[in-house]
Write a structure and sequence with these properties.
By secondary structure, the protein is α+β, with helices and mostly antiparallel strands. It has helices at 19-37, 43-55, 100-110, 118-127, 141-152, 221-227, 229-237, 260-276, and strands spanning 4-12, 76-82, 88-94, 115-117, 168-173, 179-185, 206-209, 213-219, 280-286, 291-295, 299-305, 311-314. The two termini are 29 Å apart.
C-alpha cells in the first residue's frame, strides 16, 4: 500500500501577512512525517513527528506559543488514535508538557486508560520519562501581549489581530495499512482554566478506523462536540455510495464531480454549520489514502502529500 499523509494548522481568518509562516510550518510538518513514511516507517511515528513539528512552531495554537487562559498560563490538549485497534491516548489541561502529542502517545501505548488530565497526566509523564517544562517556557511574547490586551479591555476579536492561530493535526497511512490520526491544541484564548474542547475527545476532535479512514478536526470546540464531527466523518465514509439515505445526496451538492472522501468532508462541515451554527474544518484520509479537507472559515492551513510525492499546501 502506498503511504499517505495530510496535516493541518487550523481553520481561521488567516491574515495575508501570516500566510508565509503558516505555509512554511505546514511544509516542515509534511517533511517530518513523510521522511518517516517514505522510508517504510510507521503511521504512528509519522503522525507524531508531523504534529511535534507544528507544536514547536509558534505560528500555530499548539505546544509552544499557544493561547493563554484567563489565568495567564498555557493549558494543552492532545490525542493520538490507532485505527487498527481503535485504542487512543489523550491528555488535557496539561501545563508543563512542551509536546503533548508525545504524552498522548505514551498514554496510548502504556496505559489502560484513554484520557488523563491535569496533574495526573503530568505525573504519568514523569513516571514514563517524559520531561516536564517550566509553564512559562510555553509562552511567547506575542501571546502574552494579546492576553494583556484582553485583560486591559475585554476578550474580543479586535484584540486578536494576527493572533487567532489554530489547532493542529495529522492523519497518516503507512505501507502496512496502519492509520493513525492525531490532534493537538492550546485551546481558545482567555478560556477558563480547566476548559477542554473537542481536540482530545475521541470521536470529536479526532478519530481513526483502519476499515474506513482517519480524521482530525479544528474550529469551535463546543460546536464540534455537539455533532461528534470526527466520528461522523468516519461513519459517512462507511455508508455505501449508492445508499439512498446518504447524508446530502450528490444531486443536492455541487455539480462538479467530487471524490467520495471530499464529499464526506464537505457534508460534515455543512452539518457543523447547520446544527451547531459555528465554524470549523477537518482533514480526512480514507483507507486507500485519498486526502480531503473542508472548512467554512475564510481559510484553513493544511497540506498533503501528492501522488508524485510533492507537497500541496494551502492557503
Amino acid at each position: 500500500m502506498r503511504p499517505s499523509l495530510i496535516v493541518h494548522g487550523g481553520a481561521w481568518p488567516i491574515p495575508q501577512e501570516n500566510f508565509d509562516a503558516c505555509r512554511e510550518g505546514i511544509r516542515q510538518s509534511l517533511e517530518a512525517g513523510w521522511k518517516i513514511l517514505s522510508t517504510g516507517g510507521s503511521a504512528a511515528d509519522a503522525a507524531e513527528a508531523a504534529i511535534v513539528a507544528l507544536e514547536e512552531d509558534p505560528a500555530f495554537d499548539a505546544g509552544y506559543g499557544s493561547h493563554l487562559t484567563l489565568d495567564g498560563l498555557v493549558q494543552l490538549d492532545a490525542i493520538l488514535m490507532d485505527g487498527s485497534t481503535l485504542k487512543a491516548g489523550a491528555v488535557a489541561a496539561v501545563e508543563r508538557i512542551r509536546n503533548p502529542i508525545r504524552l498522548a502517545r505514551c498514554v496510548l501505548e502504556k496505559s489502560k486508560h484513554i484520557l488523563l488530565v491535569g496533574a495526573g497526566a503530568e505525573q504519568f509523564a514523569k513516571e514514563n520519562g517524559i520531561p516536564l517544562c517550566d509553564p512559562h517556557d510555553l509562552i511567547t511574547d506575542h501571546e502574552r501581549a494579546a492576553w494583556q490586551r484582553c485583560r486591559a479591555d475585554s476578550h474580543a476579536a479586535e484584540n486578536h489581530a494576527n493572533h487567532s492561530q489554530g489547532t493542529v493535526g495529522a492523519v497518516a497511512l503507512d505501507y502496512r495499512g496502519g492509520i493513525f490520526a492525531g490532534t493537538s491544541t492550546g485551546g481558545t484564548c482567555c478560556k477558563h482554566a480547566g476548559r477542554v474542547g473537542d481536540s482530545p475527545l475521541i470521536g470529536c476532535g479526532c478519530y481513526a478506523d483502519a476499515e474506513w479512514g482517519g480524521v482530525s478536526c479544528t474550529g469551535n470546540g463546543e460546536g464540534i462536540m455537539k455533532i461528534v464531527m470526527a466520528k461522523m466523518a468516519i461513519d459517512l465514509l462507511a455508508v455505501p455510495p449508492d445508499d439512498p439515505y446518504e447524508l446530502h445526496s450528490r444531486a443536492e451538492g455541487s455539480q462538479k464531480e467530487q471524490t467520495r472522501v471530499q464529499f464526506v468532508a464537505d457534508a460534515c462541515i455543512r452539518k457543523l454549520a447547520h446544527r451547531s451554527h459555528t465554524t470549523g474544518g477537518l482533514i480526512l484520509l480514507d483507507r486507500e489514502g485519498h486526502p480531503a479537507a473542508a472548512f467554512n472559515t475564510p481559510h484553513m492551513s493544511y497540506g498533503f502529500v501528492e501522488r508524485d510525492a510533492s507537497f500541496y499546501i494551502a492557503p
